[in-house]
Specification:
Strand 5 and strand 6 form a beta hairpin. The termini are far apart. The strands form two sheets. Strands 2, 4, 5, 6, 9, 10 and 11 form a seven-stranded mixed beta sheet that branches. Strands 1-3-8-7 form a four-stranded antiparallel beta sheet, with no helix packed on it. It is an all-beta fold. It is built from no helices and eleven strands.
């Protein structure tokens, strides 16, 4: 049984930083990452990382966000710097086990506002 525990969302002023964490259990994961959904918009891939450390970023995240993972802890992190109001969204952790379907977390809300 795959379980995901997300943390780290909240309210931050423009230009501030937040770090999201997602601890996964129940499998070995080939790929871990973060999607987000802003009000009135579709889900958007923010960043993803493989077990080997290869990363993918949305253009909007490049240069500001950094994804990392601790394979020993099955935990993925998203360090978000220079946050903008348009980064306001619910952020969802997702994981891809080596066998089986993807799993999604419950979401953590990030609000960037002065």
């Amino acid at each position: 049984q795959v379980q995901l525990v997300e943390s780290g969302g909240g309210l931050v002023q423009p230009g501030g930083s937040l770090r999201l964490s997602c601890a996964a259990s129940g499998s070995i994961f080939s790929r871990m990452g973060w999607y987000r959904q802003a009000p009135g918009k579709q889900h958007e891939l923010v960043a993803a990382i493989t077990s080997g450390g290869s990363t993918t970023y949305a253009d909007s995240a490049k240069g500001r966000f950094t994804i990392s993972r601790d394979n020993a802890k099955n935990t993925v992190y998203l360090q978000m710097n220079s946050l903008k109001p348009e980064d306001t969204a619910v952020y969802y952790c997702y994981v891809v086990p080596i066998l089986g379907r993807d799993y999604w977390g419950q979401g953590t809300r990030v609000t960037v506002s002065s």
